[in-house]
């Protein structure tokens, strides 16, 4: 018997220090993580490993990324290989849509993101850390933005 795999969206706050979050089609946060890859070579290997592990367990239907387009090319190439669309979103866009604030100073928006992400972690039934890392927090909110804006991808795949 072939079990249907959960369809997911991966969100990435790009950088050598990267935040990641994986959401199911019903906007449930499955996991979140941040990691400092240290350099581009380790980042490339890390991207391969992350996408391989996700694809073994879940059906990845979209990757939403925010940050450096240069680093984003690494994710985009892998997405193309896996036939998974990759969408770039600006920080101003997702912050306006999710936090209702486009022009807050970066420090304030990161604090808001961490508080909101903590609530999402708790609502999803995951154990929240004492402090939510800013990279992971932003990845969680980028993922929430992606789930809200690309619901139709879940029905199509």
**What CATH architecture do you see?**
2-Layer Sandwich
Strand % is 15-25%
Give a short account of the largest sheet.
Answer: 5 strands, mixed
Sheet with most strands: strand arrangement: 3-2-1-4-5
Q: What is the averaged pLDDT score?
A: 88
Number of domains: 1
Structure, briefly:
With 157 residues, the chain is an alpha/beta fold. It is 51% helix and 22% strand.
Task: Kindly describe this structure.
The model has no long low-confidence stretch (mean pLDDT 88). The chain is α/β, with parallel strands linked by helices and 157 residues long. The longest helix has 18 residues, at 40-57. α1 (40-57) runs parallel beside α2 (69-81), α3 (91-99) crosses α5 and α4 packs across α5 (134-149). The chain has a single domain (7-156), classed as Ribonuclease H-like superfamily/Ribonuclease H (Nucleotidyltransferase, domain 5), CATH 3.30.420.10. A 5-stranded mixed β-sheet has the order 3-2-1-4-5. Helices cover 51% and strands 22% of the residues. The two termini are 20 Å apart. The protein has helices spanning 40-57, 69-81, 91-99, 106-123, 134-149, 151-156, and strands spanning 7-13, 17-24, 29-36, 59-66, 86-88. The protein contains 6 helices and 5 strands.
Task: Jot down its keywords.
157 residues; 5 strands; single chain; 22% strand; Nucleotidyltransferase, domain 5; 6 helices; five-stranded mixed β-sheet; alpha/beta
